[in-house]
From TrEMBL:
This is Fungal lipase-type domain-containing protein. Belongs to the AB hydrolase superfamily. Lipase family. One of its GO terms (biological process) is lipid catabolic process. InterPro entries: AB_hydrolase_fold, Fungal_lipase-type. Pfam families: Lipase_3. The keyword Cell cycle does not apply. GO terms for molecular function: galactolipase activity; phospholipase A1 activity. Residues 212-365 form the Fungal lipase-type domain. Keywords: Chloroplast, Hydrolase, Lipid degradation, Lipid metabolism, Plastid, Transit peptide. It comes from the Eukaryota. One of its GO terms (cellular component) is chloroplast.
Length: 407
């Protein structure tokens, strides 16, 4: 029996032996023939491949796989050894001017830039910006738990000395003062720190690393005008140099060399504090391989470059046995520092500088245009990068673009 559903076959209840179901046809527009049409719906049986049918296909596939395995017998694919920081740290710190490491971007160099960038960021995170705090302008953490409080214990460094600086003129865009009548210091500001890698980290990175991190500024870009009045010979600020034409921006130089004997934090200039501490650490670890890495962001980047030049010029990097400790700078979004003679002298002393800047940041373009750079290359990734290299080796600039890769 057929169950009608709107005069059509009901697919929900099919029968094994279908019965013809009359379908009333429409009147045809031609021939004046009116007749009933009958349609019989016969269910189709789907054909399922048997195991016997699929055997030839499986056998052919197995034969092809076995043939490929036979062809590969006796062929050994050598795996590339995993390269660690301990094996490549000299390249990462500019031994060959980062040739072949920027396009495409070397993963070890990327990880090191991130690590030193975090150590530069620590200068901001540890700085007391609150004018209502009695300790505004100082460091919020003790040296013993500095990295632990900032969540950077995994880096494996110990802070050995805090750095303080003073300035003879008022710098409202940079120096922070406490509103308390009796603050911790009326003239000093915490400027960064000196740290050294511990035993475990030194073993992993292949040497004992002395890191100097300089604090920058998070204020508006107009702070640059306070420091770039004119170029000043470095010899006028007691930095020994055989070339009197080597000049840097006067504001950076004063901040690096000024001192206030009435303040117990700035009785010695930032320069004197650093040179004394680096000398002590080099003597302490005289039997080990050493490296000096200086980092900083914005204004801290300018101070880092002057600091690196000063140590190389004065010979602080030369050990008692004649070995020279390599000095490298990882500069983040820093302004121009000096004239072309300063640049040439810096490179001649063997100081390696890698500048990392954002193309939308105006600070790296501030200062006097003394670097004659030309475009060297371009690589794209999740972040874009452009490499500019000057006419002399070692003047490498990595420009990090903020926009996403196109295409």
């Amino acid at each position: 029996m057929v169950l009608p559903y709107n005069e059509y076959w009901h697919d929900t209840f099919p029968l094994k032996n279908p019965v013809p179901t009359p379908l009333l046809g429409r009147k045809l527009p031609f021939g004046r023939l009116a007749r009933k049409e009958y349609a019989i719906r016969i269910p189709k049986k789907s054909r399922v491949s048997s195991l016997r049918d699929s055997l030839p296909m499986v056998s052919n596939l197995e034969r092809e796989i076995m043939k490929e395995e036979d062809d590969n017998d006796g062929v050994t694919i050598a795996e590339e050894p995993t390269r660690g920081i301990a094996d490549a740290w000299q390249e990462i710190h500019g031994q060959y001017d980062w040739a072949g490491m920027l396009d495409p971007f070397d993963p070890l160099l990327r990880s090191e830039l991130i690590r030193y960038g975090e150590m530069a960021q620590a200068c901001y995170d540890a700085f007391d910006f609150d004018p209502f705090s009695r300790y505004c302008g100082s460091c919020k953490f003790k040296p013993s738990n500095f990295f632990q409080c900032l969540g950077l214990s995994s880096h494996g460094y110990n802070l050995t000395r805090n750095l303080y600086a003073t300035y003879n003129i008022n710098l409202p865009n940079f120096f922070k003062r406490s509103l308390w009548p009796e603050g911790w210091s009326p003239t000093a500001n915490w400027m960064g720190y000196v740290a050294v890698s511990n035993d475990e980290t030194s073993k992993n990175i292949g040497r004992r690393d002395i890191t100097i991190a300089w604090r920058g500024t998070v204020t508006r870009d107009d702070w640059v005008a306070d420091f770039t009045d004119f170029l000043r010979p470095v010899t006028l600020n007691k930095i020994p140099c055989p070339d009197p034409t080597v000049k840097v921006e006067s504001g950076f130089l004063h901040l690096y060399t000024d001192k206030d004997k009435s303040c117990r934090f700035c009785k010695y200039s930032a320069r004197e504090q650093i040179l004394a501490e680096v000398k002590r650490l080099i003597q302490l670890y005289a039997n080990e391989d050493l490296s000096i890495t200086i980092t900083g962001h914005s204004l801290g980047s300018a101070l880092a470059i002057i600091n690196a030049y000063d140590m190389a010029e004065t010979g602080v990097d030369v050990m008692e046995d004649g070995r020279v400790v390599p000095i490298s700078v990882f500069s983040f979004s820093g302004p121009r520092v000096g004239n072309i003679r300063f640049k040439e002298r810096l490179e001649g002393l063997g100081v390696k500088v890698l500048r990392v800047v954002n193309v939308h940041d105006k600070v790296p373009r501030e200062g006097r245009k003394v670097y004659a750079c030309q475009q060297k290359g371009h690589c794209t990734g999740e972040q874009g990068y452009r490499l500019f290299k000057g006419s002399l080796p070692g003047s490498t600039t990595l420009v990090a673009m903020s926009e996403q890769r196109a295409g």
